[in-house]
Amino acid sequence: MYLDKLKINGNKRTKKVRIGRGPGSGMGKTSARGEKxxxxxxxxxxxxxxxxxxxxxxxxxxxxxxxxxxxEEFEIVNLGFLNGKFESGAAxxxxxxxxxxxxASKIKKLKILAxxxxxxxxMVKADKxxxxxxxxxxxxxxxxxx
Length: 146
Description:
This protein has a domain at 74-145: CATH 3.100.10.10. 18% of the residues lie in helices and 14% in strands. The chain is built from 4 helices and 6 strands. The N and C termini lie far apart (80 Å).
């Protein structure tokens, strides 16, 4: 195949079919819509979100959010904070932290995170520790209990 041997098709662009322009056009009377039914009527048709009569997705979804009843909520305390507020050998638990006003709730679980350095030995009792927080407490000579 060579570029000089190519022939350009005479019908490069097909003519647009004009529907509803009389019987001679071949697309008159019902204008390719058929006889009856929803799609034959003007202004008719289903919106894109229509799901065949079942409750549509936008109506099935809750509108004002929801509360996850299985979510665990924690009061979070960092090791650096404990290091600055308590003396060496202190026993720290949820009740002590709540009593001093360092956490807002007794009901939520207590989690200790490893942000900050520990230079004192603490006896910390919490519901959960980050892995590195437990290691830092033990390394400083303290104890991390669940």
